[in-house]
Amino acid sequence: MSERVTPAPERKRRRPTKQGTVLSEQVIVDTALRLVGLHGAQALTVRRLGAALGADPSAIYRYFRGIDDLLLAIADELIGRAQHGWRSTGDWRTDLRDIGQRIHAAYQAHPQAAMLAAHRTTGRDNETRAVEAILGLLRSAGFPDPEAVRIYHAVVDQSLAFAALDAAALALPAAAQAADLDVWQYRYAHLDPGTHPNIAATAALLAADMQLSGYPFALELLLDAIAARLPSDHR
C-alpha cells in the first residue's frame, strides 16, 4: 500500500458500501481481525479487505497509510480489548496478575493476529493507557522509578511472549497439534530410564503439564520476584 492517507476531517464515507456498511477505522480493524482469524496473515491485503467490506480497496487509504499502519491499529485493538472492564483493586500484585492474564487472553482469542501484532509498539491510545496504568500501579506500590520501568518491561514482555508462543500453538493445524502432544505422551513416555532417568521419572507429569500454557505459573514466579524487590518500608 502507498503512504498516502486522507486527512482526518475528510475520511468519513458519506454513503454505505455495497453491503450497507459505513466505513470507519473500527469497522476496518474488526473486519481485518476476522479475515486474519479465518485465513491467516495472507488475508491482510487491500484487495481482500476491500472485498470483505464491499468497498473499493482504495477506500482503505482514507483511514490507514498502509498495511503496517493497519497492523498497528490491530495491535492496539487487542490491547484495548485486554483493558476492557479492568478496574484497579488497589493491590499491586492482584492488579498486575489481572493485567497480565487479560493481555494473554486477548491475544489467545485471536491467535493469527497475535502472531502478527504481539511484538509491535503502537504508540496509540490503548497502548498508552496500558503503559500509564501499569507504571502507576508500580510507582504507587513504592517501587523507585528505575525499578518500576524495568518491572513494567518484564511484565509486559513476558505476557506478550507467552501470548505469541501460545498463539502460534493454537494456530497450528489440528493434525500438527495432535502430533506435538503425541511426542510428550508417547516418545518421552517410553524413553529408557537407564539413559533418561529424569524424564522417565516425570514422564506422566510432563505429558499432562505440557498440554497447558506455562504462562500462569511463569507469571506467579515473576510476581514473587517482583515482591522480593519491593522496598522494605512498603511491604
Description:
- With 235 residues, this protein is mostly helical.
- The protein has two domains: 58 residues, Homeodomain-like (Arc Repressor Mutant, subunit A, Orthogonal Bundle), CATH 1.10.10; 147 residues, Tetracycline Repressor, domain 2, CATH 1.10.357.10.
- The chain has ten helices and no strands.
- The radius of gyration is 22 Å and the shape is flat.
Task: Please give a handful of descriptors for the protein shown.
mainly alpha; 63% helix; Tetracycline Repressor, domain 2; disordered N terminus; 2 domains
- Total count of domains: 2
Find the CATH superfamily of the largest domain.
Tetracycline Repressor, domain 2
Radius of gyration: 22 Å
Structural class: mainly alpha
Distance between the termini: 53 Å
Write down the overall mean pLDDT: 90
Low-confidence stretches: 1-10
Number of strands: 0
CATH architecture of the largest domain: Orthogonal Bundle
H/E order of the elements?
Answer: HHHHHHHHHH
Given this structure, which CATH class of the largest domain is correct?
Answer: Mainly Alpha
Largest sheet data: none
Shape: flat
Number of helices: 10
The share of residues in extended strands comes to under 5%
| Proportion of residues in helical segments | 55-70%
Helices and strands, with pairings:
Elements lengths: L24 H15 L6 H8 L13 H17 L8 H17 L2 H7 L7 H17 L3 H26 L3 H14 L9 H13 L5 H14 L7
